[in-house]
Design a protein that fits this description.
Largest sheet: 8 strands, mixed
Low-confidence stretches: 1-39
Number of strands: 25
Distance between the termini: 27 Å
Number of helices: 17
Shape: globular
Length: 524
């Protein structure tokens, strides 16, 4: 790994965006109404080797690294995030939101925007897409809880009314992808239609194929510049590495650190970017003794995270000293630090009156996650917690153990990275600790400790009405609270390592989150 280039996720100087009627942070969209900006520049086929799988591509509900990554190329929001630096640009919106008042904005659609089936994009499509994303129980709902109503003013203008002033409007609007109002749930789940530069040609378990959208008339910079884009689903690290070495794929997601020299020997660039991606421990707080924060803390003190990083991640991660990684612009060192301390773990268990505890540690079958489990088991047993491991495919783990009527599980180890949706701390915190499926159905923290949940929610609600130092202070308080309560908490933040063939590609750059972002990339 000595030849790796070190990248750092660039972020906007202030995530607290203030919008005015005459401007914002958006780039001006290059609208070529009636023109064909989707014509490939150099032709050819771009092949991407991805590390995750899914069966849900619904832009209004998916949280899959694979679906998020492929959807970036196919569906558009009113605004889009540039995943290299989290800046915001106009997408289906013609301009920045027009601020009517502190709690009302208007957004006009790009001239003559069309979906890939040739039908015009209208305000009705926008309204329905927001309705689906914000539906009660939907995993996206916490992103949009600041919105009161989204209504069509006319065929090409929507009026967005807020419950309270909100300082991150444009970034949050980017989380909602616009699809035809007529789309069914099955259609969105299996193969959604969008207005982006690419359109899906086929979606299979092991391969996703997209071709240029001939109706795309957005910014030429992001237009399709190849004849085809193919994502090969290769979960196994060795198989994915072999595909990269042989030239079967041009870009490789999630390069194991130890395999980087092999890719470099094959002529590929291997870059690493600091990011948010993490493994977390999640506790069933509806079940004793996990309803006690001291017990939850004990588990985190018991795990030798530094050893996990050295032995399993080849040093390419940083132990969590906060909910946010140290590379994040809003990082704050949390009040409670979980450096390896088995004696502290034993003391906390004793204070909580816990003896002879036996648990089942659920894990997903992602190789880098399941490989962490044996050491975690050993560490827990060293402090007197008898541990068995049960590893399942991610969909099975949630469907059969967590998202059930009367869950009886103890704790789970799984990967997560909501920075695929954005990078503002309120979004990231609300993903796991807000009024949504994670707290209602998985950690149950909202019910097991309603006072602390309400305290965190109040901090988040207040923070998004503030800017600058005042906003940061609220986020700091929230990160301190989370570090004390830990219904779910990261072990470490993983460096994202990506391999790519720079001799064959123009315009590709790795990103610091899961998924591969190849908008505007062409073959040489």
């Amino acid at each position: 790994m000595k030849n790796l280039k070190k990248g750092v996720v660039a972020v906007v100087a202030s995530l607290a965006l203030t919008l005015t009627a005459c401007g914002g942070s958006s780039e001006t969209s290059s609208s070529a109404a009636g023109g064909d900006t989707a014509t490939s520049a150099n032709g050819g086929e771009i092949n991407l080797g991805v590390a995750y799988e899914t069966t849900n591509y619904d832009p209004s509900s998916t949280s899959s690294a694979l679906a998020m990554g492929t959807n970036w190329h196919v569906v558009e929001g009113l605004y889009e995030l540039n995943m290299n630096d989290y800046s915001t640009r106009n997408a289906l919106a013609k301009d920045a939101p027009v601020k009517v008042s502190d709690t009302e904005y208007e957004v006009t659609l790009r001239d003559e925007a069309k979906f890939s089936d040739g039908t015009p994009v209208t305000s009705a499509d926008v309204v329905e897409s927001f309705k689906r994303a914000a539906a009660e129980g939907n995993i996206y709902a916490s992103f949009l809880d600041f919105i009161d109503t989204v209504e069509a003013k006319d065929d090409t203008t929507v009026s967005i009314k807020l419950k309270n002033p909100f300082s991150l409007v444009e970034k949050r609007l980017a989380t909602v992808k616009i699809v035809p109002a007529s789309s069914t749930k099955d259609e969105m789940t299996s193969m959604p239609i969008g207005s982006g530069p690419w359109k899906y040609e086929s979606i299979e378990d092991s391969k996703i194929t997209a071709v240029p959208n001939e109706y795309y008339n957005g910014d030429e910079k992001y237009a399709a510049k190849a004849d085809k884009m193919v994502w090969d689903v290769i979960k196994d690290d060795t198989a994915r590495t072999t595909a990269a070495q042989s030239g079967t794929i041009d870009i490789m997601e999630a390069v194991p650190a130890d395999n980087a020299p092999m890719l470099e020997a094959a002529g590929m660039e291997v870059d690493e970017v600091d990011g948010f991606n993490l493994p977390f421990l999640l506790f069933n707080t509806s079940k004793a003794p996990f309803d006690n924060a001291k017990v939850r803390q004990a588990f985190l003190y018991a795990v030798n995270t530094d050893m996990l990083i050295q032995n399993n991640m080849s040093g390419k991660a940083k132990a969590a000293t906060s909910f946010l990684p140290e590379s994040h612009p809003n990082y704050h060192k949390a009040a409670t630090q979980f450096s390896y301390d088995p004696e502290k773990a034993k003391s906390l268990l004793e204070e909580a009156g816990v003896k002879d505890l036996s648990v089942t540690l659920l894990t997903t079958d992602h190789p880098w996650i399941s490989d962490l489990a044996p050491q975690i088991k050993s560490d827990l047993e060293a402090v007197g917690i008898t541990t068995s491991i049960q590893s399942e495919a991610s969909a099975s783990l949630y469907a059969n153990n967590l998202d059930v009527e009367n869950p009886t599980f103890d704790l789970a180890l799984a990967p997560g990275d909501p920075s695929v949706f954005g990078n503002d701390p309120a979004l990231l915190i609300n993903w796991w600790y807000g009024d949504n499926v994670w707290t209602k159905q998985r950690t149950f923290w909202q019910k097991s400790d309603p006072a602390k949940f309400a305290e965190l929610k109040a901090l988040m609600d207040e923070s998004t009405q503030l800017e600058g130092d005042s906003q940061q202070e609220k986020w700091n308080e929230a990160m301190d609270l989370i570090s004390n309560e830990v219904p779910l908490y990261p072990l470490f933040h993983r460096t994202m390592i990506t391999g790519y063939n720079a001799d064959k590609l123009n315009g590709f750059a790795p990103i610091g989150t899961t998924g591969l972002w190849a908008l505007g990339v062409s073959k040489k």
